[in-house]
Design a protein that fits this description.
The chain has 840 residues and is an alpha+beta fold. The protein is built from 22 helices and 42 strands. The radius of gyration is 40 Å and the shape is elongated.
Length: 840
């Protein structure tokens, strides 16, 4: 939010050192991102802030009076102005189009007051893009000497406007330094959501008064009601008080729509808004000033819609499919939750968001019906999301505006319209207020504040701080009860309210004044989180194997969530979002693997070798229940060469099925999972013949394999094979044993032996290994497959599997006879159970 300092000074005393003020506000939670100078000097300590704009030299930039506009003798697009700067008259050359209507009329009956820059003044160049500084120097243009100028807003750093010179109000004193007459600066404040109450000049003034201990002087809400009473000329009713707790109407007649005075236009521009006309400017001025958005209706247009009868203004929900053309000339189809301001002929505006075009104030408007209201901020947010629209009014209403502000806003708006447009204000207001909110009351003690902040403040100091923040404070000893002012909708009650007030006390006391202290409260008992610890253990294991963890969005779209399948499932149901953040993130994910493959797709462009994993929840709807199941899954994806290139020779072959299988086997061994097995299968995600179910005690817990070539192409991963899997990590962790047996390191030497057997191609190596272990018994310490061979002289349909066997006893050295006996049992069992024979 942009806060002109001149405007701020109407409500509170502001120090001349703007940098110090910005620092104090920033420490209080109103972060000043930039200070934009529009004439005023900055102050001493400016280094910590971004500073732009211009300081006006009081000697060279003053208020001038153009007393005559004359033609240029050698150029049709230039004029010469006879100008009085308070010291002497000058001839000033300019091409400003807003001076051309006065050309050749002779001495003007009323001089035009302008911002005048003498020779040597530092300005911004109005004819170059951006903000380019220049120094005004003497030059001859089309035969006429020019050494000074009447300035536009851009040349003075007020706005981007440079088409015409500034025409000041008639009361501007000639010769006064311009910085004294209208010098300003703008504090560009980044309002965080908890500071939305300060989205107004008055809101920031409250903070300045509280932080600096100054007196706040709010604007007057008195109005000069000279016209006929509004009662009986308009009817007013509210449909649902929960959505519209208050609605106030006022009427001003006999207005003359036209441009606002320059001081109003300048303030609006400095605050970041475009001036339109004196009626619309008055509503925007009040919104920026006190934070209450207003809306002006053309009262004559309302009477025409009502057939000449008193209009009936009321609020209601939109009918499904109802349409309204808004001020931005967009025809909008409305949802049934959207609240409308209506008359008996139909909708007039989207409540709290944007008015309708049919009753817009225009040049011919003579009577204005002014609306000030309060709206349910959650409903406003729904409407903004549904209509994909935003406005300054909706920004404030969507964050909460107290109903008390509605009457104040209408009164302030009527008064300003009377001043700017010359209207007569009708007597009284129409005020429907069915649902006044109860003020928040919070009890707190000196001890509670000391415990939270670590600094001892007396009850008087606490009461003084809260009073500066406009709380009504009642004190009994060291206990206080604070009642929040009506503009503080952010204050809760009970423990929430206590936390809110503690923060307020800390802000105003000064975070920088609170000393560092050691925690003196006893630490709470430390309770373990087994499921979290188990997941962390898996993360450590996989990272130790060389994989990198990734974290992806849990929000997705159905087509993205099923992007890893050749054919999407038609019956997959999703947890859908009522208010999605983007069109491609409308549901909660059902699977983890697609997100991990997207990470691979983005990162493989930078490095061909990728080995990543993610642990996270998926969301599975359950019929008859509001909340879904949220099982925790593990997804792994590998691609690229097996090792990065280095100065030593390394395996540069691509990773594949067995690399991933080895990672899963190592994970199963580290978790001591019983019955961790793999079984061939086929699924559309994976390459035929390179896919396996992952089983735990014969129950499926996931699928692994190399991606199908078509899926790889879909994710632009065609350079190397991609091995991937998704497992039910929750079931894996639940199956971990609570304990396992440990064996001492053997002190006696092992016996090593290789064994090669021939089996059919259909016989899994896993069965061969299991048969060897069962036959050998406890004396077989290790069995490892080290060779697979097909081809001559082995007959077709068969393969050779070679195993390295390690025999070892814990209490003795094995004899040749013992080893020979074990080997004979192994060979016999392999022949009997699998039809295997030794390879000669």
């Amino acid at each position: 939010m942009r806060v002109p300092v001149s405007w701020l000074r109407e409500f509170v005393e502001v120090p001349s050192d703007l940098a110090a003020l910005a620092q104090r506000l920033t420490l209080a939670g109103l972060e000043v991102e930039e200070i934009i100078l529009a004439g005023l000097p900055l102050g001493a300590d400016a280094a910590r802030f971004k500073v732009t704009g211009l300081t006006w030299d009081p000697e060279t930039i003053v208020v001038g009076a153009v007393v005559e506009v004359m033609p240029h003798p050698n150029a049709d697009r230039l004029v010469l102005c006879r100008l009085d700067d308070g010291r002497q008259e000058h001839t000033v050359l300019t091409g400003a189009p807003n001076l051309f209507p006065f050309k050749g009329q002779g001495p003007l009956p009323t001089p035009l007051k302008v911002a005048y820059a003498r020779e040597g003044a530092e300005l911004f160049d109005g004819h170059q893009a951006g903000w380019v500084r220049m120094t005004l120097q003497r030059a001859t243009i089309r035969g006429v000497e020019s050494y000074s100028m009447a300035c536009s807003e851009k040349e003075l750093g007020i706005s981007e406007e440079h088409e015409g010179v500034i025409l000041l109000d008639e009361d501007a004193p000639v010769g006064m330094p311009l910085v004294e007459y209208m010098g300003d600066a703008v504090l560009d404040i980044a309002l965080t959501p908890n500071m939305a109450r300060n989205a107004s000049i008055l809101g920031v003034a409250r903070e300045v008064a509280a932080c600096l201990g100054k007196t706040l002087c709010p604007p007057s809400y008195a109005i000069d009601e000279r016209g006929p009473a509004i009662a009986g000329r308009v009817a007013l009713s509210i449909g649902e008080a929960e959505l519209n707790p208050r609605f106030v109407l006022g009427l001003v007649e006999g207005v003359k729509v036209g441009p606002s005075p320059y001081w109003v236009q300048r303030r609006l521009r400095l605050a970041g808004m475009r001036p339109i006309n004196n009626i619309v400017d008055a509503t925007n001025y009040v919104m920026l000033e006190i934070g209450q958005p207003l809306h002006a209706f053309d009262f004559d247009a309302l009477e025409v819609r009502a057939g000449g009868k008193p209009p009936h203004i009321h609020t209601r929900r939109a009918r499904a499919g109802e349409q309204l053309t808004t001020l931005d000339e967009v025809e909008r189809t409305l949802d049934d939750f959207t609240v409308l301001v209506c008359d008996d002929a139909g909708a007039l505006s989207i409540a709290g968001v944007m008015g309708g075009a049919e009753t817009e104030v225009g040049d011919g408007t003579r009577r204005v019906l002014l609306e000030g209201a309060a709206w349910n901020y959650i409903n406003i947010r729904r409407t903004l999301a549904a209509q994909r629209v935003s406005s300054e009014a909706a920004y404030r209403f969507s964050r909460g505006v107290h109903p008390a502000m509605a009457e104040r806003g209408v009164r302030r708006g009527l008064s300003l319209m009377g001043d700017l447009a010359g209207g007569t204000i009708a007597g009284g207001l129409l005020d429907a207020y069915p649902l006044p909110p109860a003020p928040a009351r919070v009890d707190l003690t000196v001890e509670q504040i000391e415990r939270a902040l670590g600094v001892r403040l007396s009850a008087d100091e606490i009461a003084e701080i809260l009073t500066r923040l406009e709380f009504d404070v009642h004190r009994e000893g060291d206990t206080l009860q604070a009642t929040a002012p009506d503009h503080r909708l952010d204050i809760g009650e009970g423990l929430v309210g206590l936390a809110d007030l503690t923060e307020e006390i800390a802000r105003i006391y000064g975070y920088d004044r609170i000393p560092e202290t050691m925690i003196r409260d006893p630490l709470p008992p430390q309770v373990g989180n087994p499921s979290f610890d188990a997941e962390e253990g898996v993360r450590d294991l996989l990272a130790g194997m060389g994989l990198q963890e990734v974290i992806t969005y849990r929000l997705t779209a159905p087509e993205r969530d099923q992007g890893h399948r050749l054919a999407a499932s038609a019956d997959a149901s999703y947890v859908t979002l009522a208010n999605p953040i983007a069109s491609d993130r409308t549901v909660m994910r059902r699977e983890l693997l697609p997100s991990v493959l997207e990470v691979l797709q983005r990162n493989v462009r930078n490095r061909s070798r990728q080995a990543v994993f993610e642990i996270g929840a998926v969301y599975l709807p359950v019929a008859g229940r509001n909340l879904p199941e949220e099982p925790v899954r593990l997804a792994i994806a590998l691609t690229g060469p097996r090792h990065e290139r280095g100065w030593q020779e390394a395996d540069q072959g691509p990773v594949g099925f067995f690399d991933l299988k080895g990672i899963l086997e190592a994970l199963g061994a580290a978790l001591h999972l019983p019955g961790f097995q793999f079984e061939a299968t086929e699924e559309s995600t994976y390459h035929p013949g390179k896919c396996s179910r992952v089983l735990l005690d014969r129950h499926r817990v996931g699928v692994m394999g190399e991606l199908h070539p078509l899926i790889q192409a879909r994710f632009d991963l065609s350079d190397f094979p991609v091995a991937a899997c998704e497992l039910d990590l929750g079931r894996l962790l639940a199956a971990r044993p609570t304990g396992w047996a440990l064996r001492p390191v053997a002190a006696f030497p092992p016996v090593l032996e290789d064994l090669a057997v021939i089996v059919t191609d259909a016989t899994p190596a896993e069965r061969v290994e299991a048969t060897i272990r069962n036959a050998a018994g406890d004396l077989l310490a290790e069995v490892r497959l080290f060779d697979l061979y097909r081809g001559a002289p082995i007959e077709a349909g068969h393969k050779s599997l070679a195993y390295a066997l390690t025999y070892q006893a814990p209490d003795r050295t094995l004899t040749d006879a013992e080893v020979r006996g074990i080997r004979e049992r192994i060979v016999a069992n392999l022949a009997a159970e699998l039809g295997a024979r030794l390879r000669s």
